Amino acid sequence: MFCCMVMRLNIDCNGCCRKLRKILLNMKEVETYMIEKQQCRLSVCGRFKPSDFAIKIQKWMNRRVEILEIHDFGVSSNGEMESTK
After folding, report:
1. What percent of the chain has pLDDT over 70?
2. pLDDT beyond 80 at 78
3. pLDDT at 1
4. Mean pLDDT throughout 9-27?
5. Is residue 73 helix, strand or coil?
6. pLDDT reported for residue 2
7. Fewer CB atoms < 10 Å away: N or C end of the chain?
8. How far is CA 10 from CA 20, 75, 78, in A?
9. Is residue 75 pLDDT above 80, yes or no?
10. CB burial class (10 A; 0-12, 13-18, 19+) of residue 16?
11. 31-70 burial string, b = 16+ CB within 10 Å, else e?
12. Which range of residues forms the domain containing residue 21?
């Protein structure tokens, strides 16, 4: 199952941003990500379970994580992505 998720977490300095980027680069299930420092948001796409992913980020960053949006995508029989929402 392919999933895109938007989360809010406190990214208040460049050190936090670098730490988060390092964590995301080491996670094999993450395909793409976007860190929005000004809005304190993280957008992530990949093959993961959203609740487990949020818990991992919360533990490694030692910050409260709030899930804003979750979009689940399935793969149809002809190989195209389709939304399951």
Report:
1. 87
2. no
3. 77
4. 91
5. strand
6. 87
7. C
8. 11, 33, 41
9. no
10. middle
11. eebebeeeebbbebbbebebeebbeebeeebeeebeeeee
12. 2-83
Cα-based distances in Å from 12 to 8, 55, 84: 12, 20, 34
Unique residue bearing structure tokens 């809005």: 39
**pTM for the whole structure:** 0.79
- Assign residue 10 a region (left: φ > 0; alpha: ψ between -120 and 50; beta: otherwise): beta
What's the CATH code of the domain at 76?
3.30.70.100
Amino acid at 13: C
Contact 7, 57 (CB under 8 A): yes
Q: How many domains does the chain have?
A: 1
C-alpha–C-alpha distance, residues 42 and 83, integer Å: 21
